[in-house]
């Protein structure tokens, strides 16, 4: 018959293996949560309205596009 030391070693090895697997799973879970958190932060940052300087620059670009479209259409400004 196999001695009790063998079973103690097998139980300890199983417990250590289970602890390693649980640790890896928890690290993966934390990494996934961090990724989702970063995605939500990025989405929130993109959803905020632009500041006054960005709106002025956007209006300037729209005016330039309007003028270029008028030139392309042959309209004299």
The chain-level mean pLDDT equals 88
Quaternary organization: single chain
Radius of gyration using CA atoms only:
32 Å
Low-pLDDT segments, ≥5 res: none
For the record, give the distance between the C-alpha atoms at the N and C termini, rounded to a whole number.
103 Å
Structural class, judged by helices and strands?
mainly alpha
Biggest beta sheet summary: none
What's the count of strands? 0
Sum up the overall morphology in one term: rod-shaped
Question: Topology as H/E string?
Answer: HH
Helix content: over 70%
Tally of domains = 1
Question: Count of DSSP helices?
Answer: 2
Strand content: under 5%
Written account of the structure:
It is a single chain. The chain has 77 residues and is an all-alpha fold. The protein has one domain. 86% of the residues lie in helices and 0% in strands. The longest helix has 44 residues, at 4-47. It is rod-shaped and about 105 Å long. 0% of the residues are buried. The model has no long low-confidence stretch (mean pLDDT 88).
Could you name the key traits of this structure?
77 residues; 86% helix; mainly alpha; rod-shaped; 0% strand; 2 helices
In short:
The protein is mainly α and 77 residues long. It has helices spanning 4-47, 52-73.
How are the secondary structure elements laid out?
Blueprint lengths: L3 H44 L4 H22 L4
């Amino acid at each position: 018959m196999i001695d009790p030391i063998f079973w103690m070693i097998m139980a300890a090895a199983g417990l250590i293996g289970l602890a390693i697997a649980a640790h890896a799973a928890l690290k993966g879970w934390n990494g996934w949560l961090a990724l989702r958190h970063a995605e939500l932060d990025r989405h929130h940052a993109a959803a905020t309205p632009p500041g006054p300087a960005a709106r002025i620059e956007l209006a300037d670009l729209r005016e330039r596009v309007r003028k270029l479209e008028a030139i392309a259409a042959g309209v004299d400004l």
